[in-house]
């Protein structure tokens, strides 16, 4: 089974993946053995959390892991990405975990028909489905009824694959309210679920969960740059602003963090922060996703 984007999953598949991730978290002595599988990690774009947690997840499942060193691969000699994938599959790789700066590359690789399963570890500005899965796992662990929640996502929504996948996740689980907060320049080009606002106060008001996004300077075109003093003055998550949300609101961030830009350190490291719990849950959720990839029926 490929794992490419949240909108391709049924609600039952999402729920089953969550249950498996919680099971792995609660039963560290009872991990299943998938030693007949080989996973290749192909990270064409930088990563710390996603790459390492997929590797830890594969190790926990006793899978063989190949971290393909793309800095020294034969693509530098002119080999195509398609040929790289066909070559690895011919060697017996069963699962590709792919991150790429271009939208749609994991889907394209899945369509090549080499017989290996493809997991999307983040493609361009399109989707980051394993992040949305671990984010919702972290939310449900604390607040089990998403249909009663107000979730606010604040930041650079236009360039955020995380926000796209979270929109699909919130739609699938019928989240009570999803507020998408961004300055006009960084509003999402299409909205799948939720409502867009430029007002941080309106968006944060009575929120149960506040998800702060990174300012992604590397994805901005020349017309999309924003003055960071303006951004901080209007959209940064500070202690004062967090008071607008519910008193027990969860603070989340997919990482990596720009401390002092989109979020203040006292919030990121404060009692309402679940940022490191997201990272912890990422390992268990990625175990569930790798297991899903091995299954013909789920
Ligand atoms: N959240 C996330 O994808 O982080 P990395 O880029 O470190 O993998």
Overview of this protein structure:
This protein has 298 residues and is an alpha/beta fold. The protein contains eleven helices and nine strands. Helix 2 links the parallel strand 1 and strand 2. The model has no long low-confidence stretch (mean pLDDT 95). The N and C termini lie close together (9 Å). It is globular. The longest helix is centred in the C-terminal third of the chain and has 20 residues, at 275-294. The protein has a five-stranded parallel sheet. It has a four-stranded parallel sheet with strand order 2-1-3-4. 38% of the residues lie in helices and 14% in strands. Residues 47-50, 122, 131, 254-256 line the site of phosphoric acid mono(formamide)ester. Phosphoric acid mono(formamide)ester (CP) is lined by residues 47-50, 122, 131, 254-256.
Strand fraction equals 5-15%
Class of secondary structure makeup = alpha/beta
How many whole angstroms does the radius of gyration measure?
19 Å
Q: Which hetero ligands occur in this complex?
A: phosphoric acid mono(formamide)ester
| Biggest beta-sheet profile | 5 strands, parallel
Number of strands: 9
What descriptive keywords fit this protein?
298 residues; alpha/beta; four-stranded parallel beta sheet; single chain; globular; five-stranded parallel beta sheet; binds phosphoric acid mono(formamide)ester
Q: What topology does this entry show?
A:
Blueprint: H1 11-26, E1 38-43, H2 49-60, E2 64-67, H3 81-91, E3 95-100, H4 105-110, E4 117-123, H5 129-142, E5 150-154, H6 161-172, E6 177-181, E7 195-197, H7 200-204, E8 209-212, H8 228-235, H9 239-242, E9 250-252, H10 265-268, H11 275-294
Parallel strand pairs: 1-2, 1-3, 3-4, 5-6, 5-8, 6-7, 8-9
Helix pairs in contact: 1-11, 2-11, 5-6, 5-11
The protein binds phosphoric acid mono(formamide)ester.
